[in-house]
Amino acid sequence: MRHDIRFYVGNEYHALASIAPTRTLLDWLREERGLTGTKEGCNEGDCGACTVLVVRLEGARLVWRAVNACIQFVCMLDGAQVLTIEDMRAPDGSLHPVQQAMVEHHGSQCGFCTPGFVMSMVAGRKAAGLAQDERGIDDMLAGNLCRCTGYAPIVRAMRHAMQAGPDHFDAMADDMAARLRALRDGATVDMTGPAGRLSIPATADGLAHTLLESPQARIVAGATDVGLWVIKGLRDLPHVISIGQIADLRRIAATADGLYIGAAVTWQEARAALAHILPQPDEEVFRRIGSVQVRNAGTVCGNIANGSPIGDGPPVLIAAGAQLHLRRGDTRRTLALEDFFVDYGQQDRAPGEFVEGITIPAPAPDTLIRAWKVSKRFDQDISAILGAFSLTLAPDGTISNPRIAFGGMAATPRRATRTEAALAGRKWTEATLAAAREAITADFTPLSDMRASAWYRSTVAANLLTRLYAECGPQAARASTSVHAACTATGEHAHG
């Protein structure tokens, strides 16, 4: 048992034995350490002005992640090294290649957002397999806002920086790995002070035990949602349990039942595996969940456990037939994901019970799975409506095994059972489409709010069915066959 949290900021070691469990990294850096290069902009994880780097040793490899300091609790940094804009200069005083590129390409105007951009860009240089084309850079910088509209020179600077040589951190890699390795002691952390109690269990068994003792404690993995409760809602959390680094809950594995994702696996960590079995939803939905900073912290299972009716993950996972794994003490149970959501703010979870993981079955080869997110902005926006569809289409056009789920249409993510019934066993024709569109009005009575009116939601839900028909129905297959035949006749190749 340990009674402090230990981490580095730059090259400075910190051991904190007394800190509020919900003290944000942004406030601590600025108010306690005087590191004011990290800016407070929106203070809700949207603008990226507060972006810092969190470096961890995973196996033998250093992993660099850009995160929003405004919604990252200090307690979640146990065992990590934090780098801020103040750490970007080399020991000899020279600028980091990203900083130099920003100067040369005039990437800074008022300068307020610049530190956050630089930190995201440095993380992008460290990311393996990052696409260096325009889209890859846009995806990487989607979590950083420039209110002076200086994006074009920033993108040029990033393109140039991606081609630059090594930075001074490359020479420090062995030393960074050694210091982070020394922080690994496998200990459970328990701290109690005037501002509340912090628990960091070392194992899932320890988490189960702590929750039996304190069922009202609040679990945080990435705090991308809970952080807003504290910052914007001013909520008091007397007991916080941080689970982000519990190895038992960070497992991603292909099993006989499908893809298993543990409760502490982030969206960014899970994306490659999810894209392998759900390629179109990954492209259309998962890459638009928050930003890189949000996906680096927020977890797949946290997106489920918070029970939001507009979470982007649950509708897709429900349509894919996902099974949720829950644990209370030594007792485990599994249920269909759609059955977890009971009502607004209410889930099928007993006191002391927690989400341990989720399994997404591998779809049959002939299964069509599609999902579309509709929001006012493409990047960094909450869904007005999200539709997810799974079905099997026989060669004669007969539909079987339809599973349709929506977010934003009800108090919880929910299946469209009447719409499924209107499709099951029928030929995929315009008449069937019309019947399914009509059934949606019986499935849902959506609300009007700041994101969309009830009329808009109902209309878009029906139109997403039409899009599914247009892109995957028999006429789409016939069109594809005709194009292929025409291209073959002219010696060309058709690309899907």
Automatic annotation (TrEMBL):
Assigned EC number: 1.17.1.4
Keywords of the record: FAD, Flavoprotein, Iron, Metal-binding, Oxidoreductase
Domain annotation 2Fe-2S ferredoxin-type: ranges: 3-88
Highest taxon in the source lineage: Bacteria
Enzyme class: oxidoreductase
Domain FAD-binding PCMH-type: 191-365
Molecular-function GO term, any one: xanthine dehydrogenase activity
Entries under InterPro entries matching the protein: 2Fe-2S-bd, 2Fe-2S-bd_dom_sf, 2Fe-2S_ferredoxin-like_sf, 2Fe-2S_ferredoxin-type, 2Fe2S_fd_BS, Ald_Oxase/xanthine_DH-like, Beta-grasp_dom_sf, CO_DH_flav_C
Listed name of the protein: Xanthine dehydrogenase small subunit
Organism: Komagataeibacter melomenusus
